[in-house]
Design a protein that fits this description.
Strand content: 25-35%
Order of helices and strands: HHHEEHEHEEHEEEEHHHEEEEE
Structural class: alpha+beta
Bound molecules: biotin
Helix content: 25-40%
Number of helices: 9
Strand order of the largest sheet: 3-4-5-9-8-7-6
Low-confidence stretches: none
Mean pLDDT: 94
Largest sheet: 7 strands, mixed
Length: about 325
Amino acid sequence: MFDLLALLADGGFHSGSDLGDKLGISRAAVWKRLQRITKDLGVPVQSVQGKGYRLVQPLALLRHDAIQCAFPMLPVFIYGSIESTNDQAKHLLSNNAAPLVVFAEHQTLGKGRRGRQWVSPFAQNLYLSYVWPVTEGLNQIDGLSLVVGLVVLKAIKRISGIDAQLKWPNDILIDERKVAGILLELIGDPVELCHVVIGIGVNLNMLDSFVGIDQEWTSLNKETGSNIDRELFAKIVLEELGGYLEKQKKYGFHRMRAEWLSAHAWQGRNAVLHTGNDFVTGQIVGIGDKGEICLLVDGQECKYLGGELSLRLQNDT
Ligand code: BTN
């Protein structure tokens, strides 16, 4: 199916027999694959009598060679359609050394935080998982999810000029609408060598016609009105990730805390923290050394940390 998509990616008309000849398959087999492209990947194909088939919208697919050449020391894996890049990264780790990076054009079971689904339409956004070995003890990952937020923020600024904002712990917002999310998963034995899978999803070219997202969202294309070069964005993210992870390993999150706070969307606002069993109301006053959210609750500063926590603004702020 992906070899056929690559032939159609230019958006021009291609006859069934021409496509069949190039792929060494019958016209009927071409037609079957076209059905799957529409049904499984949600990519619309137009068929015009006498002209052939074409994609309703041309596609620029991520090219393995282009990304691998830019990062020769980092094993790069790119898939057409998989369940989740985070899960695939974990499988790959059984036969490959980290660091490594996995991209997908489409995720059928993209995972968000707190058991949510991450909507992942074909060839429109960025879905990436980077596996980072934890070699310096678990302190190495204190505040890491916030640092990855800075990576995405910087990459967005470089590709679009937009100053996005950060919502604790690691949502990236533009005018209060979510444009990117981060999901970290720790794997292995914390007393032996373990790894952290850094999953990043950024809405790049997804437009309004896309339904099924249960929160306010945006994409860089919606914000700028122009198509985003996904491959260039992928390279920028990897470049920034390399720099920030080095800083994190050397100095820890506290060296980047001021930078994080300068883009903090809700600093000083009143918020409600959902801890699973409980709700805590307070004023957001900052971020701790390990990336904890600091709330002023009944005149006392309290720190909270954990991937399952979620923060909402209190209605009156
Ligand atoms: C969130 O809920 O905000 C986190 C979203 C993380 C989505 C990314 S997309 C690439 C990687 N693979 C996944 O299955 N999830 C992460």
